[in-house]
Amino acid sequence: MKKFLKILLWTSVSAVIIAAGTALFIWYCNYTVLECSKYCTGDIDKVPIYDTALLLGTAKTARSGNPNLYFSGRIDTAEKLFKAGKIRHILISGDNSRKDYDEPTDMKNALLERGIPEEVMTLDYAGFRTLDSVVRAKTVFGKEKLLIITQNGHAERAVYIARKNGIDAAAFYAPEPIQYQWLVKRNRKREILARIAAWLDVNILHRTPKFTK
Asked: Could you give the CA distance from residue 19 to residue 3 in angstroms, rounded to a whole number?
């Protein structure tokens, strides 16, 4: 009986230690990434002029078939920054892994409809994930300084990855779809895990983009 109680005690202590360690690790990863919020803003008056903005791709339509408000929010923001003279060139990076799915071209066409000149846009079709988009901006397109355009939460993670890869990056927040608060809350919960993955990618796994050219 005493042996059983001893085993039970050590098992309980070990479980508590593991749980506490896991919670601490999750907190640390998220805190480290969120520290990059000091490089992010939604106030256009606080943004200096950037030669290049990195517009992170997303789908034009949601799975429901309705317009993706994250997409339109990023397009609105890129248009606003360009027409305000805050950015001179837009590097559009997104997923084009299938013939019937082309985030960069969809974003380019949306910006053309807003009057943004085609010659100020460059497309990266291999931005399969945030890390690919950010790192390729430097290694493939030679961009050492960037203003990243995406929504809150994602912006901090993108800036974190960029700065860990030697890019002088800041971010401008695109609006979130406030009419779908459930979606915003769901994505913010997913972002907790995404920040852990980002921390592991750049600090432990040292992952590189799928395509390096």
From this structure: 24
